[in-house]
């Protein structure tokens, strides 16, 4: 792994985490969020600060390995395409928090979560195609995003008017 690639990838992932956290931090304690009806399978709040840092680390490490592997194999176009897919994914990732918590739009957040799930699955497919089993840990990311899509959709459904 090249330090330069890891630094760039980690910085992009950290910026995503900070942006998402900025929308989420105070909002999870807001009266609006407290009033929302939530399904019984929603994880307790303490789960999210454990899961997301693990996923963000996974994204940064697997993405670095994938970008470097593609570049080393002479696949500059494929590496560029992966970086673009990663950028789109990270925008969707942070965007969900802003749509749900800041804009308070659960229906749009459910759609954003679905787009994030598709993007995460595509990112994982690209990484596994390029790196094989080395990229397998990234599969946890679209799995979590799929769960988040179901949860977001259910919250929207319970609170629609």
UniProtKB/TrEMBL annotation:
It comes from the Bacteria. It is found in: Membrane. Keywords: Membrane, Signal, Transmembrane, Transmembrane helix. It is a multi-pass membrane protein. Gene3D superfamilies: TspO/MBR protein (1.20.1260.100). Pfam families: TspO_MBR. The chain crosses the membrane at residues 135-157. InterPro entries: TspO/MBR-related_sf, TspO_MBR. Residues 1-19 form the signal peptide. Belongs to the TspO/BZRP family. This is TspO/MBR family protein. It comes from [Mycobacterium] wendilense.
């Amino acid at each position: 792994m090249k330090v330069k690639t890891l630094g760039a990838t980690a910085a992009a992932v950290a910026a995503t985490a900070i942006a998402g956290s900025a929308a989420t931090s105070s909002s999870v304690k807001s009266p609006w969020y407290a009033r929302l009806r939530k399904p019984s399978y929603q994880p307790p709040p303490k789960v999210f600060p454990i899961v997301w840092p693990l996923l963000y680390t996974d994204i940064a490490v697997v993405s670095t390995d994938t970008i470097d592997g593609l570049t080393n194999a002479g696949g500059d176009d494929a590496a560029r395409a992966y970086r673009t897919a990663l950028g789109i994914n990270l925008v969707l990732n942070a965007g969900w928090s802003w749509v749900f918590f800041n804009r308070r739009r659960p229906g749009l957040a459910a759609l954003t979560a679905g787009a994030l799930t598709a993007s995460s699955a595509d990112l994982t497919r690209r990484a596994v195609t390029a790196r094989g089993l080395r990229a397998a840990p990234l599969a946890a990311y679209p799995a979590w995003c799929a769960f988040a899509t179901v949860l977001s959709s259910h919250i929207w459904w319970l609170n629609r008017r």
